[in-house]
Amino acid sequence: MEFAKLIRERYSVRSYKSIPVEEEKLQAVLEAARLAPTAANRQPFRVFVIPTEGRREELGKVCSPDWFAEAPLVLAVVALKDKCWVRKYDQRPYGEVDAAIVMDHMVLAAHDQGLGTCWIGMFHPEAARELLELGEEMDPIAFTPLGYSSDVPGPKKRRPLEALVVDMRGE
Ligand SMILES: Cc1cc2nc3c(=O)[nH]c(=O)nc-3n(C[C@H](O)[C@H](O)[C@H](O)COP(=O)(O)O)c2cc1C
After folding, report:
1. DSSP 8-class letter at 84
2. Residue 170: pLDDT over 90
3. Of 120, 124, 151, which is best to mutate to test ligand 1, by the most ligand atoms within 8 angstroms of its C-beta?
4. Which of 34, 41, 48, 153 is most buried, judged by most C-beta within 10 A?
């Protein structure tokens, strides 16, 4: 799909069909994660592919809305705190930034495959740690359901460019 169309069309899907996601579509989404840029190319992340079948109760503890576990799959991006690049001037770790880019690559690739997603930041970190059996150095950053939408997009509510861009040309 043309990129401009893709980013215009993508929306957060909060209702899913229970039909399965084809393996090749899942692989296309995961390949987008693999190709995502990361600081110093450290690739300090893991993507978890979680089948929802038989896990709805556990997933409900991670994120409460019913639609979270409605799709056949949920994806999680976990940052590896001990592997990420750290900016030397102020010791800022970039693992969360890397993980966000990975999730966004997957979300866009999913739409390209005709699949719906919804970024989830509102999850219970401890329940997520338990579900994914994460060690101390692994930091769950974001989840998304992955499946076919049974939702309809609302209007895109965005601020005008002037409110978002500081154009310093001509100063
Ligand atoms: C970092 C991040 C966290 C988000 N967390 C949630 C969430 O926990 N639950 C939810 O329903 N939507 C969540 N969203 C989706 C946003 O609400 C949504 O992207 C925004 O309202 C714009 O709508 P659109 O994605 O349909 O264009 C999140 C989005 C981002 C980027």
Report:
1. S
2. no
3. 120
4. 48
Ligand 1 contacts (CB < 6 A) are: 11-12, 14, 118-122, 156
Distance from the alpha carbon of residue 12 to the mean position of ligand 1, in angstroms: 6
In one-letter notation, the amino acid at residue 93 is P
Structure tokens at 42: 């450290």
Cα angle for residues 95, 34, 46 (degrees, 5° grid): 50
Mean pLDDT of 39-67: 97
Element housing 87 (H / E): strand 86-87
Q: Which domains does the chain have, with CATH numbers?
A: 3-148 (3.40.109.10)
What's the per-residue H, E or C state across 100-157? HHHHHHHHHHHHHCCCEECCECCCCHHHHHHHHCCCCCEEEEEEEEEECECCCCCCCC
The one-letter code for the residue type at 65 is: P
